[in-house]
Amino acid sequence: MVKVLVIEDEAAIQELIRFNLNKEGYAVLAAEEGIRGLELARRDKPDLILLDLMLPGLDGYEVCKALRADKATARIPIIILSARNEVIDRVLGLELGADDYMIKPFSPKELLARIKARLREQNRNISSDTPQKPIHVSDLEVWPDNYIATLAGKPLNLTIKEFELLHTFVTHPNRVFSREHLLQKVWDYDATGDTRTVDVHVSNLRQKLQEMGRSIETIRGVGYRFAAGAGK
Ligand code: CA
Predict the structure, then answer these.
(1) Are the beta carbons of 97 and 159 closer than 8 angstroms?
(2) If phi over 0 gives left and psi between -120 and 50 gives alpha, with beta otherwise, what is residue 25?
(3) How would you label 124-144 residue by residue, b for 16+ Cβ within 10 Å and e otherwise?
(4) How far apart are CA 213 and CA 216, in angstroms?
(5) What is the third-level CATH fold of 135-226?
(6) CB atoms within 10 A of CB 84
(7) Angstrom distance (rounded) from CA 31 to CA 127
(8) Is CATH 3.40.50.2300 what the domain over 3-127 is classified as, yes or no?
(9) Which residues are bridge partners to 4 per DSSP?
């Protein structure tokens, strides 16, 4: 059974989420504050976490950081629920390793669609058991089956979205992708979504790729391109 952890202090929103998720057959765990949320995440290993940003005590940013820093919870998809729609808040959440965000108030239908999209990725990740060969780009190795990438033999600590971006790039060397196309391909959004999401993830990915990050070139006014053979 799919387990979703909801870390949200507003009882009405928590209830709304619980009701709609239960209806879909998901088990729902809930916490009203950050520390408790972290405990439940570590203890129960949910399949996905819905994380409110404005929480009493430890806030959503801190929780997100702690989840990503802990090996046991580092790869659980996180969708941030934000009441505030200032870009900076969302960007910060994504920088701390969240996979997606939703602005409150949201429709249960939209929330379910996002949850399913994230779970589908996670399943692709877990269920494929025929080992494939990694994709090599100089020092970089990308293993599509288990969402692992290594650089000079050392694992890169990528989030699922960062991995999918990287995978998209290395499987389409030299191709120019628009932000909208990446948003659609990697996040399953329609092209009207916020393309800042793409920029933040590309920026995180570049950092983690160190020198090789330079291979991801910004194409002004369009988007990005992975330049094959560069970044050595
Ligand atoms: Ca709140």
Answers:
(1) yes
(2) left
(3) ebeeeeeeeebbebebbbbbb
(4) 6
(5) Arc Repressor Mutant, subunit A (1.10.10)
(6) 12
(7) 29
(8) yes
(9) 28, 48
Whole-prediction pTM: 0.64
Structure tokens at 174: 């030299």
Distance between CA atoms of residues 72 and 59, nearest Å = 20
Q: How far is the CA of 81 from the centre of ligand 1 (A)?
A: 9
Q: Where are the domains of the chain?
A: 3-127, 135-226
Q: How far is the CA of 22 from the centre of ligand 1 (A)?
A: 21
In angstroms, what is the span from residue 187 Cα to ligand 1's centroid? 25
Q: Per residue in 97-113, pLDDT tens?
A: 888 888 888 899 999 99
Q: What is the DSSP string of 62-111?
A: HHHHHHHHSTTTTTS-EEEEES---HHHHHHHHHTT-SEEEESS--HHHH
pLDDT digits (tens, 9 = 90+) for 129-168: 555 678 888 889 998 877 889 999 888 989 888 999 999 9
Give distance in angstroms: CA of 16 to centre of ligand 1: 14
Whole-number Å distance, alpha carbon 41 to ligand 1 midpoint, is 18
